[in-house]
Amino acid sequence: MKNEFVLSRTNLPYWLRQLRKKADLIGPSRSLNGDIIFSSIVNIHEMILDCPASIPSPKEFLFPQKEEMYKFSQKGVRNLNDKTKRIIFGVRSCDISAIALLDRFYGGLLEDDFYMSRRRNTCFISITCNNPDPTCFCSGLGTGPVLKTGFDLQLTDLGDRYLVQAGSREGLRMINGFRHLFLLPEKADYDDQYEVLLSSQSIFEKRITLENVRQKILDGKVTDSFWESVACRCFECGGCVYECPLCTCFNVIDWKEKDNKGTRLRLWDTCMFKGFTKMAGNVLPAGKKIMRTRRWYFHKLIHYPEQFGRFGCVGCGRCTITCPGRIDMATIANKLD
Amino acid sequence: MKNKNKKGLYLPVDAKINDVVDLTPDVKLYKLRKPRSFVYSPGQFVMASLWGAGEVPISITSTSEIHQDIELCIRKAGFVTSALHRLKPGDSIGIRGPLGNRFPFEDAYGQDVLFIAGGIGIAPLRSLINLVIEKRKNFGKIALIYGSKTPTEVLFMPETQNWKENGIDLTLTIDVECKEWACSFGLVTEHINRQSISFESGYAFICGPHVMINAAMHDLSLLGMPAEHIITTIEAHMKCGVGKCGHCYSDGRYVCTDGPVFSYAEIREFGIASP
Amino acid sequence: MKKISTVCPYCGCGCGLYVHVEKDIITGVSPVRNHPVNKGSLCVKGWNCFEFVQHPGRLKYPLIKKNGVFKKASWDEALDWTAENLLKTREKFGPDSIGMLSSAKCTNEENFLMMKFSRAVVGTNNIDHCARLCHSSTVGGLAKAFGSGAMTNSIDEIDSSRVLFVIGSNTTEQHPMIGMHMLDAVDRGATLIVADPRKTQIAELAKIHLRHRCGTDVALLNGMMNVIINEGLVDLDFVKRRTENFDDFERIVMRYPPDIAEKITCVPAVDIRRVARIYATEKRSMLFYSMGITQHITGVDNVRSCANLVMLTAHIGLPMTGLNPLRGQNNVQGACDMGALPNVYSGYQKVTDKKARKKFESAWGAKLPSVPGRTLTEMFDAAGGEIRAMYIMGENPVISDPDASHVTEAIKKLDFLVVQDIFMSDTAELASVVLPAVTFAEKDGTFTNTERRVQKLKKAIRPVCGAMPDWRIISELSKRMGYEMEYGATHEIMEEAALLTPSYGGILHHRLDNFGLQWPCPGIDHSGTTFMHRKAFTKGMGSFIPIDFIPPAEPVDGDYPFILTTGRISFHYHTGTMCRRTSTLEREEPDCFVEINPADAERLGIKTHDRLSVSSRRGEIVVNASVTDRTPEGIVFIPFHFREAAVNLITNPALDPTAKIPEYKVCAVNIAPVVTKGTSFPRRERR
């Protein structure tokens, strides 16, 4: 119980302003054209807490689309590990669930030092999602709208105050310096939080449990002709992978300048391209589109559960927003369910 | 497998080139000074890295019990390998590794062993062949079928004779008949059933082009060899070699961390990288 | 971490995207979710459009060629040297000895300045750009029919249309985000009809796919219109009230009953009838076309036939109802609007029109030439003769123009060539002076997309060291040639353009924040035009123009038995200056290929990946075979992005008589396997 607090609405900006002094504070704000974008916050009052899903997912702060890895020159090699302190405010529960899985993927015995260096310097302040999009389906997967564990700090908007739950040492540290701003919660606070959860759950338009789909695939009930009908609508844009908070693939390239100077960098890559698996001599193990679209679904629906015990999907709905061919996870799951 | 390089998962270690041997016009053998704490087994590979060009996975062709250096057999096939081919003794190649699993050769103790190599597929097998010869008494009959396209493309020619002297039943074959060749002709698969090993209990280690691997595995299993005894090593597009970049991922397995050595049983189950 | 909202630099869709910047380094891009065109999606090029911006191969300082070798120069040296040479040429051979190529990749402001530079500073109307090679037939053809050559509708309207007739456009690959809207419309029950010799992705998704022979579009459209007239499906009221010259047109169309059309096009008459009925009877019918219509010697005819069809059925002048040419380049619409054309000022005001000329003369304080200048293709023909010097901004004609070896020869004959680009392009290699310009992420300005939407792009990072925005280079050069151009920022240029261009009258930077405005936007309180020709055509009455079928310039024969058609693929863009420096795109299709039908391939003994020699009367290239039934028998397809196998070495430079657009889409070629030593076994190397 002692890791739960109440913060009054008026104190939030002050608290964040203090936190910003030690780290880059990133949060959602509305751009001129009405979009929600996560970027460094200049004016704290411009932040929005009941925002629709951001594009792309917050994995961009841990695993950017383009990340410089090493600078090399005649003199030697410099590691460009990013150690910037970041606090990311207003992240949704689904994304926090995704980051927990990313931590397991990039961490472990073979630890990806570029990811982990950013991860160790980043704290997430997540929110109980009170405004799910029509594309969202986290409630069916248990990855939202509210989390029990796995977060640093979780805020629930109770109107005039926030219920703040600390789920990690880093989270607690953000509160500890400012204990005078926080009160201890009472029963009414928990009741209000429950109400927020109920009302949020009533907003969801999609009820998708991927378990049925998984069973159908495992039982061999999904035919090649179904995947063919999916593949023929694929634009090969890679958007589903770029947007997915759980897609981890990357490509490594070298940029060479004069005098053997240069940069080794990594870029987001996607399995939707036939060149992704291309081998020497132009051998294409996944030359047909159907192999690639099917593989993406199999990875998320079959192999993720085998490897991590969770689906490779947190129901954030971003592929539904971005897929130009409308063959995203939710649509496919609806068709197969 | 655990990352031993404290400076990071993706940072290659410089290894000085002690010697370069031209094996054929487009294949070179690089002998690299072994960095300290580099312990490897047959079947493993390294990511060979050249700043400004990139990284490619290359299987280790030497045997740690026998060779002082790490030996890499590199065929000029793309941008990075062409850049590697320009290096001379005294230059350095960055290496990351050893990566991947190894040939489960202990399983074959007391049994016959058949090696099947096609083209540059001899390179990863060589590290095992030399080890098997070193531990000759642990195995039954040993045979090698090694196929190339033309006589000029045969790698390690002198060494194969050496193997023969050490009791390996050697079949050197080239695809199409031609005059200046004194050994056999035809595809490797045509020679499999002529081997005098026990197929029911023996083990086979296969490496070569995909088409050849698939055909050989299929033929061996028809000859009665159990699928768990048919072992191959697979090539795939790789960028990291440590199970992160996703390029070699196929049906729940990463060729780089779960492989590159797989048995026919695993390949049939997962359909790994079979174009 | 900043996210700057800007516009994609690739195709004419004009998708909105954010450029992510951290410490002046671009770390990625993401789509704008509320944007009316892309709605949170991007195509593969859009997703990867940041990679070339900070590529180490960018030009970082000016280069002057001395004794055949490029030497690094300071900006002052390079600009002085350029100005001196241009002035010398003008003095010796007159202003019309200088030719300008503006760029559909540059902003409206830069195109306007280039036009001003050409006309007011140099004193010549010899200014053109690559629209000559893609949509000059649209600009010319629709001007005559409607009075204005642009998409009549908006992309966002596509979703709610009932019939989509797509002819000569590989929409899902070339305009993926428009393809997305089309797919949405189909999902909502719209009928998609595609006319294309190739079985493209959009064709596979279509309800009806007409595979007419290359270059027979007029016959196909006339056949359809014949059915419409004979079956009484003409909207007579509309024809009477809004159009003229119907009778002449009807006489010609009567010569093309569907069975005659079938003979020419190889499309079954029954399909022609079916499509004609669907298109004519349904309301909310939109017609889309692209290069498959325009890049022919009959390009203008094709465009006018399309115009005839929409007027005949009154499918114009309403939302979700119209004629929509899909423009290729991100700002090809804007470059045309800004008058980077030899015969018009901005807003298509004719240089021969005394009143218009007077207006520009008094605004610019200079005497302007009154005779239309040379087109792009004509400039290269006259190079070394009447054209002595050229100034090429952001274009790569050595790869993009037909019969490319001719262009290279022509350029070599020039006394002086200035090339302004972001990379060392093949054209820049031949230049006397190379000026390093900046990319979309490093400058301010506006782009006009295919639906006439003028959108603001915003500077995301500082220019890479040493490079300068094109508009600054032009004004610096102008100053050195004795004409002061004092612009502090791009919005000042836009203000001047708005003042002089009626259709851009209300288009000012501060009004463009919310996804821009669609021209015509005549005044500061006008909110833009989402669909055109409402109530009346721009020129008043729409004109029917009788069009007879003319076969392509180069028929197939015994020596050259295949028709070659060219085009783009989704992973590459034009001459590859940007996309081939993008690792993902380059990895996907690193080599040029020729698509050939399995039946033809079997006859010639060709397999996928075989090396083939493709030759025409003009040259030969060697490419890999790709055996696929996407391409019909007798036709082969080659993308034109690859410098190693530049298909434009063999294309036919025959021109449309009025628009001067070359016939890229049809020429006769021969195909033969190349015998090479090599292995058929895949090579072994772990990669």
Describe the structure.
The complex is a heterotrimer of chains A (337), B (275) and C (687). With 337 residues, chain A is α+β, with helices and mostly antiparallel strands. Chain A has helices at residues 12-20, 93-106, 113-120, 169-176, 187-203, 210-218, 224-231, 239-243, 289-308, 318-322, 329-336; strands spanning 4-8, 24-30, 36-40, 66-73, 76-79, 86-92, 122-127, 153-157, 161-166, 182-183, 250-256, 262-268. Chain A has an eight-stranded mixed sheet, with helices on both faces. In chain A, strands 5-4-12-11 form a four-stranded antiparallel sheet, with no helix packed on it. Chain A is globular and about 65 Å long. The mean pLDDT of chain A is 90. Chain B is of the alpha/beta class and 275 residues long. Chain B is 19% helix and 30% strand. A seven-stranded mixed sheet of chain C has the order 5-4-18-17-16-6-7. In chain C, strands 23-27-24-26-25-30 form a six-stranded mixed β-barrel. A five-stranded parallel sheet of chain C has the order 10-9-8-12-13. Chain C is built from 25 helices and 30 strands. Residues 677-687 of chain C have low confidence and may be disordered. Chain C has 687 residues and is α/β, with parallel strands linked by helices. Chains in contact: A-B, A-C, B-C. At the A-C interface, strand 3, strand 4, strand 11 and strand 12 of A face strand 1, strand 2, strand 3, helix 1 and helix 7 of C.
Layout of helices and strands, plus pairs?
The complex is a heterotrimer of chains A (337), B (275) and C (687).
Chain A: E1 4-8, H1 12-20, E2 24-30, E3 36-40, E4 66-73, E5 76-79, E6 86-92, H2 93-106, H3 113-120, E7 122-127, E8 153-157, E9 161-166, H4 169-176, E10 182-183, H5 187-203, H6 210-218, H7 224-231, H8 239-243, E11 250-256, E12 262-268, H9 289-308, H10 318-322, H11 329-336
Parallel strand pairs in A: 2-6, 6-7, 7-8
Antiparallel strand pairs in A: 1-9, 1-10, 2-3, 4-5, 4-12, 8-9, 11-12
Helix pairs in contact in A: 7-9
Chain B: E1 13-24, E2 27-32, E3 45-50, E4 54-59, E5 70-75, H1 79-85, E6 92-99, E7 113-118, H2 122-134, E8 142-148, H3 157-165, E9 168-174, E10 184-185, E11 203-207, H4 210-222, E12 230-233, E13 249-250, E14 253-254, H5 255-258, E15 261-263, H6 264-270
Parallel strand pairs in B: 7-8, 7-11, 8-9, 9-10, 11-12
Antiparallel strand pairs in B: 1-2, 1-6, 2-5, 3-4, 3-6, 12-15, 13-14
Chain C: E1 2-7, E2 16-22, E3 25-31, H1 44-47, E4 63-66, E5 69-72, H2 75-93, E6 98-101, H3 108-122, E7 127-128, H4 131-134, H5 136-145, E8 163-167, H6 171-174, H7 176-187, E9 191-195, H8 201-204, E10 208-210, H9 217-230, H10 236-242, E11 243-244, H11 246-253, H12 258-265, H13 269-281, E12 285-289, H14 291-294, H15 299-312, E13 322-325, H16 332-337, E14 344-345, E15 349-350, H17 354-364, H18 376-382, E16 389-393, H19 397-400, H20 404-412, E17 416-421, H21 426-429, E18 433-436, E19 445-448, E20 453-457, H22 470-480, H23 490-500, E21 517-518, E22 542-543, E23 562-567, H24 583-588, E24 593-596, H25 598-604, E25 611-616, E26 619-627, E27 635-639, E28 652-655, E29 662-663, E30 667-673
Parallel strand pairs in C: 6-7, 6-16, 8-9, 8-12, 9-10, 11-22, 12-13, 16-17, 17-18, 23-27, 24-26
Antiparallel strand pairs in C: 1-2, 2-3, 4-5, 4-18, 14-15, 19-20, 20-21, 23-30, 24-27, 25-26, 25-30, 28-29
Helix pairs in contact in C: 2-22, 3-22, 3-23, 5-15, 9-12, 9-13, 9-15, 12-13
